[in-house]
Every structure is written in C-alpha cells, then in structure tokens.
Amino acid sequence: MAKQRIVVMYGGKADEHSISCISAAGVLRALDTDKFEAIEVGITKNGEWIVDGEDPRKWNMSEGLPVVEKTDSSKDVVLDVALGQDGFFAREDDGTLTSLGHVDAVLPVLHGPYGEDGTIQGLFEMMNVPYVGCGVLASAACMDKHYTKVLLAAAGIPVAPGITLDVRDYDAASEFAAEADEMLAAVQQAGLQYPLFVKPSRAGSSFGVTKVEHEGDAAELAAAVFEASHHDWRVLVEQGIDAREIECAVLCPKAGEAPQASWPGEIVLDKRAEGDDQFYDFDSKYVNSDASHVEVPASLPEETLNRVRETAKKAFIAVDGAGLSRVDTFVTADGEVMVNEINTMPGFTPISMYPKAWEATGVSYTDLITTLIEGVLR
C-alpha cells in the first residue's frame, strides 16, 4: 500500500517560531514512516515557504532556539490554489517549477499568528486540502483570548474576570504613562482583585505576559500594558485566580465525532518550593528544565479530574473545535473549574503537556500523530 504524503509545516512569522520548530522536530522523529511520507515545509520569520532546508529532526532546544532560514539547498514553495492537493511546487534555480507531488493532507505544526489563528486554515479551505486541527472559526477565536472568553461565557462556562483594552490610541512615547490613571480606574470599576495578569490577546507561549502585584500602582499597570502592546494592540487585564492550573488534552480526529478528553495534567513549578514567586512564563516552559515538571494525572480527586475533562469537552464544542486542542483551566480549592484559554495547536514536543497527557491516558506519541492524520484523510 502506498504511503500517504503529508506536508508537515513549521516555523512561521509568529513569536512562537522556534517553539513550532521544536514541536515539528518531535513530530517528524515520531511519525510512522511505514504509513506516511513527510514533505517538510518550513516558513521563515519573513513568511517565505521553503523545502530542502535544514533538517528539523536535528533540532534540540538544549542547543538553542532553532530558526527556519534559507540555505544553499533550499527552494521556495509555490502554490497553485486551483490545483488543490496537486498544487504544491518547488521553484528551481532557473525559475521552473517542480511538483512536490500529490499531497494527502497537511499537518500545520504552527503556533501563534499566521499559523494557529485561522489564516493558513482558510488557505487550505480555499485549496480544498485536508488539514489536521481546528477550522477557521475555532482557530481565529481561540487565538484571541478576548473572543475565547466571549464564546465560553455565552456557553455558560466560567472564565476569569477581566477587562480588555484597545491600546492603538495610547501614547507610546510615554510608554502609556499618559493613560495610567485611566487604566487603573477601569480596573477598579471592574472590581478586579490583585494580583493581575496583563497579557496580549493574540499571542502564545507567555510572550508579553506580566504579573502586576501592587494594588493602586498605576505606573506598574501601565508598564505591563505597554509590554503586552509589543505583541498585540488588544490587551487583557485579568484578575489572578487563587487556583491550580490544570490542563486537559482534547482529541477529535474526525469531524462530527464526540471529542475525547485525556486525564488532566499539571505543570508543577518546582522553584515555588524555594519561595520563588514564579508563574509559568516562557523560561519555565522551554528554557529552564529545572523550573517545572509535568504530572499526569494531576494530584486531584478523581471527581475533580472528571469535572475538568467534561469542562474541556464542553469548551471544545463551544468554540467549534476539531482535531485537537489543549484546554487550560483553573481549579480552585473548593473544586470549581474555570477555563483560562484554549490552544488549538498546543506544543507538540515529546515532553509537552498535550502528548504527555495522552500517553498517560493510553495513547502513545506516534499513535496520537497517526490518529490525527488518519482522521482527515479522504
């Protein structure tokens, strides 16, 4: 039987470029090569699509953050939208185009804007090319934390209290100091309790997130909003929740089927035991291996774990999810579950929560990738 030919995409224009590269490296190393032939398409930070570049299987986070770059051997990828699954080409040095062959499906291992936000999903819809993951609506809505909360609240799913700021008209020259009192008044009017977490609405991997601890400190708030504005003009100011952060992997490989939920897991921040006032930032996730570890299932009563699973599935359905998502929740001391955010293309390295959660639930990394791909094949 002929192997299915799968375009595996990685890199991209988002801040999460290097995380995408590491996720793709893990996926490609684990891919069942008896069933699938990978066509590796990297996207540079400038948005150029290439093939025959550096082999992503060699990338390892311990050796630094990898970047997709053009090489002497790489070729630009050119699409002919009208040809659909036969519309992928490589541009040769003389300008001629060479077909990359029939593409059975695309696995876009892309995080953040231009990959996880519905843009590339819309392109594949236009080309009528099967792809793994959520569609245009869910991808766009879940990339934007503001609209995620709007959809979840409408479905009756609890979310953290907060406000959303449009900072496009703020005074960047003063680093938003000119709007500091206005922002503080908005926080007070909303009755938000400290600490606050200030975050860009459309970014991932904790880029631009700041913890604001001093109640009434307008300057500290303004500085946090200014930091978030480097990543998005829409900024969320959310009330910190006194709860544990519990993550649940949701899987729905075939459209129309009921979603499945893994055993929920927890990222344990090891330095908290040393009195370090730490939250799960970029370094904790990807750089400092001593900062945290994954526990699946999380150390919670089974009743609470199942409540998280049911909430995760309900949230997935509320945003019209498909394929996969990681639903991040807060679980309070009294067992209340609220949704923090939904990641439609979560980190996919072998040690990331999504594959680790499914491994603990009985689905291996390779089988998980196979299930996702086979769910969209025609």
UniProtKB/TrEMBL annotation:
EC number(s) recorded for this UniProt protein: 6.3.2.4
Record flagged with keyword ATP-binding: yes
Q: Which UniProt keywords apply?
A: ATP-binding, Cell shape, Cell wall biogenesis/degradation, Cytoplasm, Ligase, Magnesium, Manganese, Metal-binding, Nucleotide-binding, Peptidoglycan synthesis
Q: Which cofactor is essential here?
A: Mn(2+); Mg(2+)
Q: What does this protein do?
A: Cell wall formation.
SUPFAM superfamilies the UniProt entry points to: Glutathione synthetase ATP-binding domain-like, PreATP-grasp domain
Sequence ranges assigned to domain ATP-grasp in this UniProt record: 149-374
Which InterPro entries does the record match to this protein? ATP-grasp (IPR011761), ATP_grasp_subdomain_1 (IPR013815), D-Ala_lig_Van_CS (IPR000291), D_ala_D_ala (IPR005905), Dala_Dala_lig_C (IPR011095), Dala_Dala_lig_N (IPR011127), PreATP-grasp_dom_sf (IPR016185)
Record pathway: Cell wall biogenesis; peptidoglycan biosynthesis
Q: Where in the cell is it found?
A: Cytoplasm
The record's GO molecular-function terms, alphabetically, read: ligase activity
Q: Could you tell me what reaction this enzyme catalyses?
A: 2 D-alanine + ATP = D-alanyl-D-alanine + ADP + phosphate + H(+)
What is the protein named?
A: D-alanine--D-alanine ligase
Indicate the family of this protein.
Answer: Belongs to the D-alanine--D-alanine ligase family.
